[in-house]
UniProtKB/TrEMBL annotation:
The keyword rRNA processing does not apply. Its cofactor is Mn(2+). Pfam families: M20_dimer, Peptidase_M20. Residues 1-21 form the signal peptide. The Mn(2+) ion enhances activity. Mn(2+) binds at residues 130, 132, 166, 193, 406. GO terms for molecular function: metal ion binding; N-acetyldiaminopimelate deacetylase activity. GO terms for biological process: diaminopimelate biosynthetic process. Residues 216-311 form the Peptidase M20 dimerisation domain. This is Amidohydrolase. It comes from the Bacteria.
Amino acid sequence: MKTTLIAAAVSILALSTSAQADPVRDATAKELPSLMTLYRDLHANPELSLAEVKTAAKLAAEARKAGYTVTEKVGGHGVVAVMKNGDGPVILIRADMDGLPVTEETGLPFASKIRGKTPEGVETGIMHACAHDTHMAAWVGTLRNLAAMKSQWKGTVVMVAQPAEESSAGALAMLNDGLYTRFPKPDYAIAFHNSAALPAGTIGIRSGPTFASVDSVDITVKGMGGHGAYPATTKDPIVLGARIVSALQTLVSREVDPLESAVVTVGSFQGGTRHNIIPEQALLLLTVRAYTPEVRKQLLDGIARIAKGEAIAAGAPEPVVKVREPFTPPTVSTDAYATQLKTLFTARFGPERVQDIAPTMAGEDFGRYHIADPSVQSVIYWVGGVPKDKWDAAQANGGKGLPSLHSSKWAPDAEAVIGTAAEAMTAAALDVLKR
């Protein structure tokens, strides 16, 4: 009887251990050390938008090594890696590759010391200040996992390493270069972004608008220059520019419906060379954010109207208002697929690690993959990167003191981001492609 009870106990323990085994988590854990090595290399060697030559080559090599059919130079330096595994759905998994013109101040032993020039010719440090290096490392982890687990899925995986997300040019360039015609068109498209506002390893997800549209607007304010001692003989573009800046604030506060989200920020006011010279012109650089085409149009039309009206009031020439292209459209996570992924992630990671999140006024050109074909079910989600000690300290300080994305001091808990994201992305792909 005693022998029988022992045997039964061993059998139950074996079943329990088997039930707790998780192939996706185990596969990700196995890859994590080499993914961290890749991450540190990518972090130390960032490249700016439209210049991701070496970065793209590294990711293409990783995909080829895993058995994917790889095409390079799609829409610039984009990489498309395809693995077909029988009949079934097609899922597109995207990571972005570009760094930012930011001089790194994280103090990491593998901090970037790379310098370069922006398209405008400004010499600058270069840094993965938006942590796209974690996106790429998790992307490689996902493609490795899916290649090793081909017996568990059917369909097609399209891995997209996208250039120029920061300049809003990359997704559009790849689509214009035949992403949906030269390669299998996806039924689903997924991506993630690391978060500087969530604790490391936490997933944030929502359905509906997730990222805002982004427009960059230049206003060249014209005047008539002269001596600073004789302002009556001039038309001062500095004063006119200041009036325009003040009047622009009423677009959001007095013209847009208070229940709509909108932002008009003047990020740069350039004009003049000396204390005693009134210049011929000044330049205002704006960022404009909205969630709907209607509000976007209202803001852009209002900016042009205000600039012209203030110039008329000042008796100055009409300003030149230029809306730069390409703009970033809103990124919307489709309702049904976002709900499906939230359920999947909650079951896998537990409710304490999956949060409903609010939309952000930041921009992301991932939205173009759905806009190009609305039948594509599309979701982008967040993976928290704030290290636990820094998160706890910030909470004790009322949530203050954390560096944001694009900060020279942003150093996420890369292991938590990469491990969580690769596991989540692999699970999401298997959920779509399950046999």
